[in-house]
Design goal:
Blueprint (H helix, E strand, L loop, with lengths): L7 H6 L4 H38 L6 E4 L4 E7 L5 E6 L2 E5 L4 E6 L12
Antiparallel strand pairs: 1-2, 1-5, 2-3, 3-4
């Protein structure tokens, strides 16, 4: 007498399907896209530019180290340390990765010129 069938409960308990899962995962996917566009992509571009700058260091360039020392490159071998003159007759060895900036680019010195 007091028991009546609850027809509305059947619709609530039924699984929603793929549309509900998609709607729930959409904000997470949107956040991942925003992070990639605003953080990871510019960071990758800066890293590529830094690597290109470090690989292009040649003898005669004026460089600034990460410690703030300014000097002129006297010896640069690809993939190895740099020899930098920071004052007359004072040369130090630096790891390429510790160069923060290249202030002035110069033409590489050609030591193979014939003496006239």
């Amino acid at each position: 007498m007091f028991v009546t069938p609850a027809y509305a409960q059947d619709a609530v308990g039924a699984p929603g399907g793929m549309a509900d899962i998609f709607i729930q995962l959409m904000p997470i996917a949107l956040l991942v896209l925003i992070f990639w566009l605003l953080i990871f992509r510019p960071q990758q571009k800066r890293l590529k530019a830094q690597q290109a700058m470090l690989s292009a260091i040649r003898r005669g360039d004026t460089v600034v180290t990460t410690g703030g020392i300014v000097g002129k490159v006297t010896k640069a071998v690809d993939g190895e340390d740099l020899e930098v003159e920071i004052s007359p007759n004072v040369k130090v060895k630096l790891v390429r990765g510790m160069v923060a900036d290249v202030r002035s680019k110069s033409e590489p010195v050609n030591d193979n010129k014939p003496v006239a």
